[in-house]
UniProtKB/TrEMBL annotation:
Matching Pfam families: An_peroxidase (PF03098)
Record keywords, A-Z: Disulfide bond, EGF-like domain, Glycoprotein, Heme, Iron, Metal-binding, Oxidoreductase, Peroxidase, Secreted
Family of the protein in this entry: Belongs to the prostaglandin G/H synthase family.
Cofactors, names only: heme b
Gene Ontology MF term list: heme binding; metal ion binding; peroxidase activity
Major subcellular site: secreted
Protein name, entry field: EGF-like domain-containing protein
């Protein structure tokens, strides 16, 4: 999944606030999508589901990064890098932009199509699964120049990285972590569902001799990185229990021992600022990335083959407007005697009318409605008769003034 950041033009937002927004996306969107809600609940009694169990004064060691995380478990997703780059226009028509391997040093796609098309194409594309089968774009052509014949091998680099750091073999971690109180429920579920037996069959082949040769002399020699990739996935997750356990332990210590983690007690000096951060999910960031973004999938971290048909979409216009209202509340410069919740808010503050349309209130039910300037129409004046009209041979679309139809 490609995250395409957007930074609203405001002097009120600091770099730290943007870091907080993306950390929130990791813990509240990416982790549930990656591990599945059930597995998050099994790990350490669901501690990763909670913002934080510790106050700032309870921090003991401070955040630290585990070596097995940076050299192996963190890099498991390298096997998901796709073979092709795809883009999608504002109507979600998907275009193949060529092989990934030909674009390492060629930014023409983002220059020609823009960040919006690139982001839409990225989250509409189903990535490869975490496994030992790497896409050819990084297996043989990593960082290849466009006219070159070959590049580097990311799979081999990751194995060498673990050995350079002196990381113990896969089975050392497997035996240790399956008895770890935080991870034990994950292994129990995995073994019960047959994950151990299928993984053992795959791993045994690595040190079975074929034509007098084997990849490893014994199972104790198998690299941690290779073992993580070969593990059968936990039900509902994108990874097996050893990789998941290492990753979850890392995310937990960063959450619990980081003084500036956004969920810590005392971090927020105003409730509205916390509410503002909560609005910054990945769908909102995608909407802010490009003005042409009209609607997005509610949960872009989760691939859905036909998400528009299932109705799991959100209008970008309403997300932008909600964000604007909460932003104004969070940073409003009003007298303390008049708090934002005491201020009367017009119903029209909840809707944006595009193309010079203006909002009016229904006198009966006080609901907002956009008064559109012809030929624009739609709930927010976002539609135009020419939007769905295709002119061939270089022709251009015009609107009949009498019928308000495209021709």
């Amino acid at each position: 999944m490609l995250i395409c950041p957007a930074r609203p033009k405001s002097k009120k937002s600091s770099p730290a606030s943007f870091a907080v927004k993306f950390i929130r996306m990791v813990y509240e969107e990416m982790l549930p999508a990656h591990y599945g809600d059930e597995n998050l609940g099994l790990f350490d009694n669901g501690s990763l589901r909670k913002l934080s169990n510790l106050a700032r004064e309870d921090i003991t060691s401070g955040p630290r990064i585990y070596n097995e995380f940076t050299t192996a478990a963190f890099r498991a997703a390298h096997s998901r890098i796709p073979k092709f780059i795809k883009t999608a226009d504002d109507r979600y028509n998907v275009f193949n932009e060529g092989h990934f391997e030909d674009n390492f040093f060629d930014p023409h796609v983002i220059h020609q199509k823009g960040t919006g098309d690139l982001c839409r194409g990225a989250y509409l594309m189903e990535n490869l699964k975490i496994s030992s089968s790497f896409g050819d774009s990084v297996r043989n052509h990593l960082l290849k120049i466009k006219k070159g014949q070959h590049g580097m091998d990311l799979f081999a680099i990751n194995i060498a990285r673990g050995r350079d750091h002196g990381i113990p073999g896969y089975y050392k971690y497997f035996e240790k972590l399956q008895t770890d109180p935080k991870c034990k429920p994950l292994y129990q579920k995995w073994i019960k569902s047959g994950g151990l037996s299928t993984t053992t069959k795959k791993i045994d082949k690595l040190y079975e001799k074929e034509n007098g040769q084997a990849l490893y002399e014994s199972r104790d020699d198998i690299d941690l990185y290779v073992g993580i990739l070969l593990e059968t996935h936990l039900d509902g997750a994108d990874i097996g229990p050893t990789g998941a356990c290492i990753q979850m332990r890392q995310f937990k210590i960063l959450k619990d021992q980081e003084y500036w983690f956004y969920g810590k007690k005392g971090f927020w000096n105003a409730a509205m600022k916390k509410e503002l951060i909560d609005q910054f999910d990945l769908a909102t960031v995608l909407c802010l990335t490009d003005k042409t973004m009209k609607e997005v999938q509610k949960e872009p971290f989760i691939y859905e083959n036909d998400w528009k048909a299932t109705g799991s979409t959100e209008k970008c216009a309403s997300k932008r407007q909600n964000l604007k209202i909460i932003f104004e509340k969070a940073y409003r410069k009003e007298s303390p005697a008049t708090p934002f919740w005491a201020r009367k808010i017009s119903p029209c503050e909840s809707i944006t009318c595009f193309n010079n349309g203006n909002c009016i209130e229904n006198e009966i039910n006080q609901q907002p409605k956009c008064n559109c300037i012809e030929p624009h129409f739609g709930e927010q004046c976002e539609e135009h008769p020419c939007n769905e009209y295709i002119c061939e041979k270089g022709g251009s679309c015009s609107v009949n003034k009498d019928t308000q139809t495209a021709e």
